[in-house]
Structures are given as C-alpha cells and as structure tokens.
Amino acid sequence: MSFYLIKSHRSEILKKVASEHKELNDSRLSWLNKYLNILSQRDKYWLVFIIVVALLLILTIVQFDAFTYIVLQKKSAEILIDQRTSNVATIISMTLAVIGLLLSNLAVKDNQTYKLLFVNSKLYLIIYYTLSVIFCLIIISTLRDTVEPPFYQRLVVAGTYLALFILIGIGYLFRTIINFTNAGKIQSTLSEQLMIEAKQNLRIVLISKYSQVQFQQFLADNGIQSLENSFINDRQISGATGLTSELLIYDINFKKLKLKLDGRSDFSKPHYYSRKLHINMITKDYNNFIWPVMNETVTDRMDFTECFTLKKTSSVMAKSDEYKIYFDNKLKEYAAEGKQNKVDEILSIYADLYILNMKYD
Question: Which parts of the chain sit beneath pLDDT 50?
Fold first, then answer.
C-alpha cells in the first residue's frame, strides 16, 4: 500500500469499516436522527431557538414558489397572526396536559425507560420548537405597525408554515408515548438500543484495529522493527525522553511521517517502535514511540508531533455500556424475583448479542 498517497488515514479507515462490515453501518436516516437527538437534549434550547429564528428569516426573505399562491392583505395578516398565536398557545397547553396523563400510564417506569422515551419522542425538541415559534409569532404581531406591509405579510405566512410543523411534531410525540404504554414495545425498543450500542462499540474496535495494523505495516516497510520481535527491552533502550501531555490521535499523516523517517541522520542504527499507535487512541507517546531517539541531525531530535492530528481527549469515540448495564441489572432483578420468563427473554437477547460479537472476534 502506498501510504504516502493517502490524504486522510482516518477517512480511509472509516470507509474500509463501512464497506467491509455493512451490518454495523447506521441506517440511511440515522444521521438525521442523530442531529435531532442533539437538538432534543435538555440544554439545547438556545440552539433550537436560533434555528427557528433563522428559518423564519429564510422563509420570509427567500421567495419560494409555494408562497406566491398565498395572498394576504395587511388587515387579514394581522387577524391571522393573532389567531395563530392563540391557536399554538392552546395546542401546547393541551399537549402538556395529555403528555402528563400518558406518562403516568407507562407500562415500565424506571429511569432508563424515561430517558429513552424523552430521546425517542424528541420531547424537549418539540417543546423548545413550539415555544420558539410562539415567541416569533408574538414578535411578528408586535411589529404590525413597524414593518412595511409586503414584508409583514411574508412574515405572517412564514410564521404560519412554522406553526404547521408543530402539529407534525405533536403527532409524532403522541405516537411515541402511546407506544411506551405497551410493555412489549418498550422491551423491543430497549433491545434494539442494546444492539445499536453493541454495533457502535464494534465499529470503534474495528476502526482502532485496522488503523493499528496499517500503522505497524507502514513502520515495517520503513525499517522500523517492533520491540516485541527484538531481543531487547525497554530498559535497554536509550534516549528516553519526558512524556508529553496526553492527547487523542485523531488522524495520522503517513506522508509527513515518511518524510520524517527518510530524513533521519543515521540509517545504520536499528530503531524500534514501542507503541502501536492508531486513530482514536489517547496517549502521551505520539512523539516518543520510536527508540532510540531518532535525530534529523547529530544533535537535533526528530519531532513527530506534526505527523499526527491531535485533539483533546473529549473528542474520543468512546464505547458505551449504558444499555448493557441496564440489562445486566434487570437480569439480576428478575432472577432474584424468580421471573423465569423475563430471565429467558433477556438471555435470548444476550444470545443474539453474543452471535454478533463472535462474528467480529
């Protein structure tokens, strides 16, 4: 493999995992669901508000063909905006009352179920979106004598379109919550989340594995031997330097790394790599993984930092065991209570999980 021709090692590895292990890939709509889940977080109200305001301005300023069929006089627009504001406020108050009633009738009431419900139903997103639209409608109503009539009419039409999406959101919200009043639906959804979690963990493992294999192959092709295959150990290696700060290896630039290795001052001295680096690895050894210390000149130590894209450790693709822990706890609980049917149900789920993991062991 011509490693120096690879523009982005990370992109190549992600493509390799996606093409060779399609079973682990996300569904086509999962990217949309991921963004909606981000917006559904409790602390993302400000982002939802910004998006709603931006949509209102875009729908008002940009002349869409669908808007040209709606003609409003200024007086009609003023009446319409007041009615829409009142309608939306009534809808949200009734919705919250119905949600409270439905939540009190959930088939399974525990923290994980409530958390999953809030995520799947996009509850926070829908509430934040509705409140943001109400805010915009109130502002539009207030500006009736300030904004010029043609622009004001377009504002009213844009606000009406935004209000229509509230009905779609509330319909989706009710449908999701009603499903959670069925114990079988909840168990099915939790099982699905467990498999999604397992697949995501396997993807992370494979990304690290394939990256490490390519990194080792690259070093071998450039005459750098593995410390494990040599007759020396760490204590015999000279040139150890102080550890740098711990960072995440986000990407590896093989082209720059090859130029560095080709530029070393002494080719006769054997060199060894002591760490098998790969993307998505948190380490301090991104600059001192080759021993003895490799020099560009007799005195200048070679710096490998620029050969890696380094980020804060918070950017790591971390594996999750949230749903695995949940099912483990439920298994212990059902076993202690003597609920054999429930135990068998979880063991059946674990069998599917085991088969999935064995495929990539």
Answer: 230-242
Q: Where is 247: in which H helix or E strand?
A: strand 247-252
153: amino acid identity, one letter: Q
Q: Is 181 exposed, middle or buried (0-12, 13-18, 19+ CB in 10 A)?
A: middle
3-state secondary structure string, 279-310? CCEEECCCCCCEECCCECCCCCECCCHHHEEE
| Cα dihedral 78→162→126→96 (10° resolution) | 30
Domain boundaries, the chain: 1-25+183-320, 40-181, 323-359
From CA 181, how far away is CA 186, in angstroms rounded?
Answer: 8
The whole-angstrom distance between residue 80's C-alpha and the CA centroid of its chain comes to 40
3-state secondary structure of 310: strand
**Region for residue 77 given its phi and psi (left: phi exceeds 0; alpha: psi -120 to 50; beta: otherwise):** alpha
For residues 199 and 23, give the distance between their C-alpha atoms in angstroms, rounded to a whole number.
8
Q: What element of type H or E holds 92?
A: helix 74-103
Backbone angles phi, psi at 124, to 5 degrees: -65, -40
Query: Does pTM top 0.70 for this prediction?
Result: yes
Structure confidence at residue 334 (pLDDT): 93
Query: What residues pair up with 252 in beta bridges, in sequence order?
Result: 308
- Specify the pLDDT at position 237: 41
26 token code pair? 């996300």
Query: Class of the 40-181 domain?
Result: mainly alpha
- Distance between CA atoms of residues 33 and 52, nearest Å: 18
Element holding 57 (H helix, E strand): helix 45-61
